[in-house]
Specification:
The structure holds two protein chains of two kinds. Chain A is built from 16 helices and nine strands. Chain A is an alpha/beta fold. In chain A, strands 3, 4, 7, 8 and 9 form a five-stranded antiparallel beta sheet that branches. In chain A, strands 1-2 form a two-stranded parallel sheet. Chain A has a two-stranded parallel ribbon with strand order 5-6. In chain A, helix 3 (about 60-80) crosses helix 14 (about 305-315), helix 3 (about 60-80) crosses helix 15 (about 320-330) and helix 13 crosses helix 16 (about 335-340). Chain A is elongated. In chain B, strands 4-7-6-5-14-9-10-11-13 form a nine-stranded mixed beta sheet, with helices on one face. Chain B has a two-stranded antiparallel ribbon with strand order 2-3. In chain B, strands 8-12 form a two-stranded parallel ribbon. Chain B starts with 12 loop residues before the first strand and ends in an 11-residue tail after the last strand. The relative contact order of chain B is 0.24. Classes of the chains: A alpha/beta, B alpha+beta. Chains A and B meet through strand 5, helix 8, strand 6, helix 9 and helix 11 of A and strand 1 of B. Strand 6 of chain A pairs antiparallel with strand 1 of chain B, so a sheet runs across the interface.
Chain lengths: ~350, ~230
């Protein structure tokens, strides 16, 4: 994904330090996928800390929980005084480079490749990552009722009429928030595949898109929507990803609205999104200062399901990231011990 | 009530995106088909049954209440929205009050012939008991019966706003849309009102008693939100 998955809102959020309601920030991946490649200014990571280590905490749930798991485990098992400090990704990277920040819990790639390259001599990306994806989803009951399994089925207006709510005979489909650049790409994909002809594409805030899924599930109504994983919707509902041709860089021709007013006509992408992944990042000096910590960080191997669980705990069960982290470390004592010993131990 | 369509927050709709990539803006002006007929969801057979104004009046006359689907009930509703949030589904004529633990209270609603004309995330800015209704100027000009209420019709059983009104705000601004009661309880489940969201009086009283000012309201972008003529 060479395109800038980015929106100004997320650039701002990325730099925004104070705590904000989780709900608004649920935009998660697309936001996180946010394009720090547009980096124009670097903030300061805050005052020097009296703590042994500073972990940057982003403003989305899984990043908040991971930051707190790192803190809790290092405090419990290595008796380190760890401060979790809320900050945006750009600020965190600047802090990692300057030594004011030691760890970032969740760095999204390839979206942040440019930032990683820029700070390559100062910032280390842990080897193990969590894989992520985005695409078009439906619910299991929709598959049963409509026989829609793949994106190619969306080309059949008889099938997509099941998604009609306003009586015009055409189905509707949420393709993302107006503020996400991924939404423009979903429009490109809809045009490229051809299902934009018989489906009305809707863009609206994620909370509305997700509440529509909740309401459809509550009454067994068919629904189709743009989706990304990890995400709580997979734990809330029985969600199925539609099949589509694999990503092919040779077929991915994406021009974004910011770059050309004729972007849609000039774009063509009749294939799946490329896969994404996210990793822990840490300041390179940590390897000499506290090798036991880098050994630990390089061993952390969360699964996508665990990431979803973190988001679910914070967003649905409304448990604070710090509380969830505490109980997670307690329940996963052996796993944490294994991480502390290092990979392959 | 026929609210003037000046809702400040119009979620955007992309209708029939052309190859030229013209982004059609707000809902206004987008030509959509006729308003569909209501269907009732039968929870026993898990199917949808056609429902219209004639059937509604007949059912209400015979039973003294609306069909089961539109009566207040606790339903399974899994969501990441927090308890106290209202979710309005104009397509299925349901209003959900999220209760947490995978449940919601579901109420039947009536929506406008012309739909809501909007969708979005707003909040309850004010709650009024037996609110005064002031007919819009164009209704006063058109309807001789409305003239006597030009200065406001006091709250009461005949008042079109019914027993309670939840005034929907975006930020600090009144959107002019309300969730309110009705003196026409048979009309729940239909597309008969003039734009607001109506509930029967017992339901709006019940809802209002559980709602705090500031409660989040999500009006889904489907069904009535997409109807033409708004």
């Amino acid at each position: 994904m060479k395109q800038r998955l980015y929106r100004e809102r997320y650039l701002r959020d990325g730099e925004y330090v104070p705590a904000k309601p989780v709900k608004r920030l649920r935009a998660a991946v697309f936001g996180r996928l946010a394009a720090l490649s547009f980096l124009t200014s670097i903030g300061q990571a805050g005052p020097a800390s009296a703590a042994d280590l500073v972990v940057a905490m982003p403003n989305w749930p899984s990043g908040q929980v991971t930051a707190n798991i790192i803190k809790t485990a290092l405090k419990k098992d290595l008796s380190l005084d760890v401060e979790v400090r809320e900050m945006g990704t750009m600020t965190a990277f600047a802090g990692l480079a300057s030594g004011q920040v030691d760890i970032h819990p969740e760095v999204w790639l390839p979206n942040l490749n440019s930032l990683v390259t820029k700070y390559a001599d100062k910032v280390q990306i842990a080897d193990i990552g969590v894989s992520a994806w985005q695409g078009i989803c439906t619910t299991k009951q929709t598959v049963k009722k409509t026989g829609i399994h793949g994106v190619k089925d969306l080309l059949d207006p008889k099938k997509t009429a099941a998604f009609d709510t306003d009586g015009d005979g055409k189905g509707e489909m949420w393709v993302g928030a107006e503020t996400w650049s991924s939404t423009a790409i979903e429009r490109i994909r809809a045009k490229s595949y051809g299902y934009d002809k018989d489906l009305q594409l809707l863009q609206m805030p994620e909370e509305m898109g997700m509440a529509a899924v909740d309401a459809a599930e509550a009454t067994d109504k068919p629904i189709v929507f743009a989706c990304y994983s990890p995400h709580v919707v997979f734990k809330l509902h029985d969600i199925v990803k539609l099949d589509e041709p694999a990503y092919d860089a040779a077929k991915w021709h994406v021009v974004l609205p910011a770059d050309d007013p004729d972007w849609l006509a000039k774009s063509d992408a009749p294939v799946a999104w490329d896969r994404a992944h996210f990793h822990i990042a840490y300041t390179k000096s940590l390897a000499t200062r506290k090798p036991e910590v880098t050994k630990f960080l390089e061993s952390i191997d969360f699964t996508p399901e665990e990431i979803t669980d973190m988001s679910y705990a914070v967003e649905v069960d409304r448990i604070s990231p710090a509380d969830y982290a505490e109980s997670w470390v307690e329940k996963n004592e052996d796993r944490v011990a294994k991480w502390l010993k290092g990979r392959g131990q | 009530m026929k609210p003037v369509s000046r809702f400040p927050y119009r979620t955007r709709l992309i209708a029939g995106i052309s190859a030229a990539g013209v982004l059609l803006g707000s809902l206004v002006g987008i030509s959509l088909a006729q308003v569909p007929k209501t269907q009732i969801y039968d929870t026993k057979t898990r199917t949808w049954i056609a429902y219209d104004s004639r059937k509604a009046r007949k059912y209400y006359a015979a039973n003294g209440q609306v069909p089961e689907a539109f009566r207040k009930q606790v339903v399974v509703f899994r969501t990441a929205e927090k308890p106290g949030t209202i979710i309005i589904d104009g397509n299925q004529h349901f209003l959900y009050l999220v209760k947490g633990a995978g449940q919601a209270v579901r109420y039947g609603i009536g929506v406008g012939r012309d739909g809501f004309g909007w969708a979005g995330i707003v909040r309850v800015g004010r709650i009024a008991e037996w609110p005064t209704w002031t007919p819009p100027a164009e209704m006063v000009a058109r309807d001789p019966n409305a003239v006597k209420f030009a200065g406001g019709m006091p709250g009461g059983p005949d008042n079109p706003l019914g027993a309670r009104a939840l005034y929907l705000y975006e930020g600090d601004q009144d959107t002019i849309y309300r969730i309110h009661g009705t003196p026409e309880p048979w009309s729940i489940g239909l597309n008969v009102s003039s734009g607001c969201i109506r509930m029967n009086n017992d339901d709006i009283v019940d809802l209002a008693s559980q709602i705090e000012v500031g409660a989040k309201v999500i009006v889904l972008m489907q069904g009535a939100s997409l109807y033409k003529g708004v």
